[in-house]
Amino acid sequence: MPTTPRLRSCLLATALLWMAVNNGVILWNTRVQIRHGYGDFASFYTAGTLVRRGLGAELYNHKAQWKVQQEFASEVEIRQGPLPYIRPPFEALLFSVFARWPYVIALLLWTALKLALLAAIPFVVVQGRSWKEQIPLWAVGLLTLGTFPEFMDLLLGQDAPLLAFLFAISYWQLATDRDVGAGFTLGLALFKFQLVIPFIIALWIAGRKRVLPGFATSAIAVLAISDGIVGWRGLLQYPRDLLALNQATGVGLITPENQMNLRGLLIFVVGRIPYPGRIHWALAPVALAAIVSAGLLWRKAGDRLLAEGFGLGLIVAIITSYYAYEYDLLLLIVPLLAMRARAADAPKADRVTRYLEAAGLLLLLLTPVYWFARVQLKAECLMTLPVLALGLAWARRLHDASTGVGAERRAPVPGGPG
Question: What pTM does this model have?
Answer without folding.
Answer: 0.91
